[in-house]
Design a protein that fits this description.
mainly alpha, 84% helix
Length: 381
């Protein structure tokens, strides 16, 4: 056995063990790393407001606290408004449910020539095995739901805590990061940080514009249908559909449908159709153009980044994919050397102009000349 073989085997086993240990640690800390990443982009989003307030003489920690307090007050006020509205509408729906059920049963009896009654339908529903199993599963799942809610609140608190420190101690963090790098690298890091702030702000700005467009469009529909609480519902649709990825559209459309159902069941179908049509219009017309202008990336790249972010990190990846890709694209664009494009029609999708006649035309011309040359010789014979 060569003398180096035992050392190589030990080295390979040690590297394999380190790899397994690193993989285990990464999967154990993936939740924490995701929360830190969300907090970092949230800090980048509020960085312009905090820097503007700090530039006017206010302490950076106090400025960060005031910005978070304003966001928290606006969010809580909106949730309380929607909660009170939703509670009132649920009470109205419960009180009017027998009337809705009677109208549906009468329509079924007239259409299909049946003889159903509300009492029989209620009894069959209350004594059904499906309802009993659902109640049992709901009772046993209360603890799981409570655990999930508490875990979500703890995660939200962690994200806000990290984002507060990132925003309040932004200059100190940049100084600590630059202190371990040479001057040339310090310039690159500071430039990348500035680009990230601009791109994240542009992404929030584009989402805000799309939320405004969505809210106004749904407000017009709800007012035309006579649905109550149209302004609050419009704000709900705009914010939830834009800032909650993947499932935000369905959550946003469910509440207006529920409120419209209390007015007229057919209005709920109108709202559902409008939500589906508007979502397609937004996905293929509004979002690609607006996102490409504010974040300065191609619509196909924006769509692909959202798909890739969703596949890698789920809803969080879909939310931060576009600003992350825009930051990376803008940062790498400074190191790509570009040249002037030559004046060629093929650049614009045209064809290159060929000098001379095509080959087929020249062959035909030669054959025709040869035929003309043999004709007089035959006649002379």
């Amino acid at each position: 056995m060569p003398g180096w073989l035992p050392r190589a085997i030990v080295m390979a086993l040690a590297l394999y063990g380190c790899f397994q240990l690193g993989s285990w640690a990464f999967y154990q800390l993936i939740g924490l790393l995701t929360n830190v990443l969300i907090a970092f982009f949230l800090a980048l989003a509020i960085e312009p407001a905090v820097s503007r307030m700090a530039g006017r003489g206010m302490r950076r920690g106090l400025a960060t606290f005031l910005v978070f307090l304003a966001v928290l007050i606006a969010g809580l006020g909106f949730v309380v408004l929607l909660g009170s509205m939703l509670a009132g509408q649920i009470v109205d729906m419960v009180e009017e449910f027998p009337k809705y059920l009677d109208s549906v049963i009468n329509w079924v009896n007239q259409t299909f020539r049946t003889e159903l009654s509300r009492v029989e339908v209620q009894d069959s529903l209350l004594h059904s095995d499906w309802l009993q199993k659902y109640v049992q599963n709901s009772a046993t799942g209360v603890l799981d739901v409570s655990t999930t809610v508490l875990g979500g609140l703890f995660r939200l608190l962690m994200i806000f805590l990290f984002s507060f420190y990132f925003a309040a101690d932004g200059p100190r963090l940049r100084r600590a990061l630059c202190s371990v790098l040479p001057p040339s690298r310090q310039t690159e890091v500071l430039r990348a940080w500035e680009i990230a702030v601009d791109k994240t702000g542009g992404y929030i700005y584009s989402r805000g514009l799309m939320a405004l467009i969505s809210g106004v469009s749904h407000y017009i529909l709800l007012v035309a249908l006579g649905v109550p609480y149209a302004p609050a519902l419009a704000v709900w649709v705009g914010l939830v559909s834009q800032f909650i990825p993947t499932i935000g559209t369905y959550l946003a459309g469910a509440l207006p449908m529920l409120i419209a159902f209390t007015v007229d069941p057919w209005f709920a179908l109108w709202v559902l159709g409008f939500v589906v049509v508007y979502q397609q219009f937004e996905n293929y017309v509004v979002q690609p153009k607006l996102t490409s202008k504010t974040v300065d990336i191609h619509p196909a790249v924006a769509f692909g980044s959202v798909v890739a972010g969703t596949a890698l990190m789920g809803a969080v990846g879909a939310l931060i994919a576009i600003p992350a890709v825009a930051t990376l694209q803008a940062f790498l664009g400074a190191y790509v050397k570009r040249y002037d494009v030559m004046d060629d029609p093929r650049v614009q999708g045209g064809h290159r102009q060929r000098h001379g006649a095509p080959a087929l035309s020249r062959i035909r011309r030669v054959v025709r000349r040869g035929g003309e040359g043999t004709g007089p010789a035959d006649d002379s014979r």
